[in-house]
Amino acid sequence: KGFSSTFTGERRPKGDRIFEALGATDELSSAIGLAGEFSSEKGHTFVDQLHKVQCMLQDVGSNLATPLSSAREAHRKRTSFSERPVLELEQWIDSYSEQLPPLRAFILPSGGRSSAALHFSRAVCRRAERCVVPLVQAGEADPNVAKYLNRLSDYLFVLARYAAMKEGKEEKIYIKPEP
Questions:
Q1: Alpha-carbon distance 43 to 45, whole Å?
Q2: pLDDT, tens digit, for every residue of 98-126?
């Protein structure tokens, strides 16, 4: 009948912001899974990190599916989302950034299949973040979930550049057309 249940048992329309955010997060995990498969074929060592991110996205989904307005303490305890994964992403970003040449131009999604799939994942991540922020602002989701998605998009961008560099693929840069 067009309704679904949250983890708290609350019935909401399928078009509710919570289910939109859950769907975007699921799409993100799928996009990262594809990027991970391409990256695995190339022997990238960061594939385990991508798998860990997918597991964290399950935790993101659990938090989103537990609106704070209807959650009991037992729900909140089971689906809380800490800042620890955010800090881990920041460490990964720093580690890969140190190995990359400075960014001097806008990069178009490119750099081989691994890199392009990571860029695509980053774009999906940005959409998921845009779906989650209103839930955080409304007090329905943990602010660390939005922080995680924000840092995750940066991680995916840096990782896309790193994959292109490791594979010896050229990153295409934006060139402004002549008027």
A1: 6
A2: 999 999 899 999 999 999 999 999 999 99
